[in-house]
Structure formats: structure tokens, C-alpha cells
Amino acid sequence: MYAERSKITDLEAEIATLKGKVEEVQADKERCVECGHGEQGQGSSYKGCGDCRAEAPKRLLFEAHDKNESLEIDLEAERVKAKTAEEEKKKADEARDISTSAVNVAQNNYAEAQTIVDTLVSESEWMRSRGVAAIANSILNATELDGAVATLIDASRVVRHRGGYLECAQHMEEAFGQQFYTHHCSVTD
Q1: Which residues of 73-83 are buried (b: 16+ CB within 10 A; e: fewer)?
Q2: What are the pLDDT tens digits along the chain (189 aa)?
Q3: How much is the pTM?
Q4: How many other C-beta atoms can be found within 10 angstroms of the C-beta atom of residue 134?
Q5: Coiled-coil annotation: which residues (predicted)?
Q6: Domain regions of the chain by residue span
Q7: What are the Cα distances from residue 168, in Å, to 7, 13, 100, 182?
Q8: By C-alpha distance, which of 189, 188, 183 is closest to 166?
Q9: Which of 56, 72, 73, 180 could disulfide-link to 169, CB 3.0 to 4.6 Å?
Q10: What number of CA atoms fall less than 13 Å from residue 110's CA on the CB side?
Q11: Residue-wise pLDDT tens digits, 94-119
Q12: What is the largest CA-CA distance in the chain?
């Protein structure tokens, strides 16, 4: 990019130099024509207006003009190259920015997925070592539960005995027609 800009600057300087030479040759030609005899004007590099000497400035003028046009075409081509190079550089920068942002998004997604996977792995390990069965066993094997179950079994046995006594008393009352005292075995006690 720097080399192209440098070349453009050099070509512009060369064009300016050639334009100066063309103007100088044209001024010399005009002085020769005004003079009529081909006398040397101030700053003129020609000593007369002979036919051969008149053709030389024309030839130089046309050569300088052709070279000037050629350099202008080269300059325009270099400008187009520089512009194309700048556009390609912009496209490359945009593509690099897009790929960088895509890489960042992918890395963030990977990190997020890895966090989820790590959490699931640790939770599955916990369930394997301390899962529902282990929790149920620890609850069922608790000493407090043993005492509560024993108390509940004793209470249900007492209730069954009382219920059986009350049922028997009811049958006896029906059979003998006599009422038995059953307040001492009330289930609500």
C-alpha cells in the first residue's frame, strides 16, 4: 500500500515536470513565431527559426504530450490499484473482525456448555454415591424412627385389644340382654 502511494506521488511529480517542459517549449515556439526571424528570445534554447529547428520543438512537444498522457494513464491505473487494495484491505479487516467475533461466541458457548456438562457430571456422581436409595436407607434406619415405629405398634396393639373387647362385649350384650361396663376400654383414651 505504501509502495503504491509512493509510486503515485512520483508519477504526479513527473507529470508536473513534463507539463512545465511542454509549457516552456510552447512559450519558445510562440516567441519564435512573434519574432518572425527566429531570433533568440530570453530563456530560449533555440538559436534560430529554421525549418529543422522548428520541427524539433514540435517533435519534443508531441513526445512530451504523449509521455504526459501515458503517465496520466499510468497514474489513473495506480489510483485504481490503490483504491482496489484499500477496498480489499477493508474487506479483509471486516472478515477478520467477523471471524474474531465468531470465535469469541464459539468460545463463550463452549465455556457455557462445559459448565453445564460439569454440573451434570457432578450431580450424577452425587446421585450415584448418595442417591435416593441411600437417602431412603438413612431415613428408615434412623433411631428416632425405630422408637416412633415401636410406639405406634404398641398403640395399635392396645387399640386392637380394646376394639376386640368392645366387639365381644357387644355380642355378649346381644346374647344375654345385659349391658357390660365398657368405659374403661374406650378407644379415645
Answers
A1: eebeebeeebe
A2: 677 778 888 888 888 888 888 888 787 777 766 665 454 444 445 455 555 456 667 777 888 888 888 888 988 888 899 899 999 999 999 999 999 999 999 999 999 999 999 999 988 887 777 777 777 888 888 888 888 888 889 988 888 888 888 888 888 888 888 887 777 666 554
A3: 0.35
A4: 12
A5: 68-95
A6: 2-130, 142-185
A7: 125, 132, 91, 10
A8: 183
A9: 180
A10: 6
A11: 999 999 999 999 999 999 999 999 99
A12: 176
**DSSP letter string, 17-74:** HHHHHHHHHHHHHHHHHHHSS-PPPTT-------HHHHHHHHHHHHHHHHHHHHHHHH
CB 28 within 8 A of CB 44: yes
67: nearest Cα among 25, 26, 18: 18
The amino acid present at 87, given as its one-letter code, is E
SS3 per residue for 138-158:
HHHCCHHHHHHHHHHHHHHHH
In the numeric block, which cell numbers belong to residue 28?
Answer: 519558445
Report pLDDT digits (tens) over 157-174: 888 888 888 888 888 888
CB within 8 A of 43, min separation 6: which ones? 24, 28
Instruction: Identify the DSSP state of 187.
Output: T
Residue type at 84?
Answer: T
Task: Look at the chain and count its residues.
Answer: 189
Task: Say which residue the cell 474474531 belongs to.
Answer: 100
